[in-house]
Sequence to fold (109 residues):
Amino acid sequence: IDFSPDPAEEVRRRHEAQERRIQREKAADQRRRDAERERKAKEADEEKARERQRDAARAEKEKERLKSQAKMDERKEAEAKAAEMEKRRRLMEKLRKEEEVRRKAVAIE
Fold:
């Protein structure tokens, strides 16, 4: 009985082993590509979240700036109104004094 391996069987086994190795490599490559795609998607999501945060911070800052501007405008308006009222008060005082002087002049005649 000849126990030496059949050359055709040996070729078939080598071919099957090579085929299994190729399939393992393909699966490993696919896993690497999938992992890379997931990593990039995660990075993109994180960047979008950071951008949303920056936008929200910018919007909040702008809101605060506008609020501050409105307060300043309100204060300037109040100061202008007060100045106008003071101007009117002085004018009325001046007119009252002039009227008083006129009355005294009429009373003297």
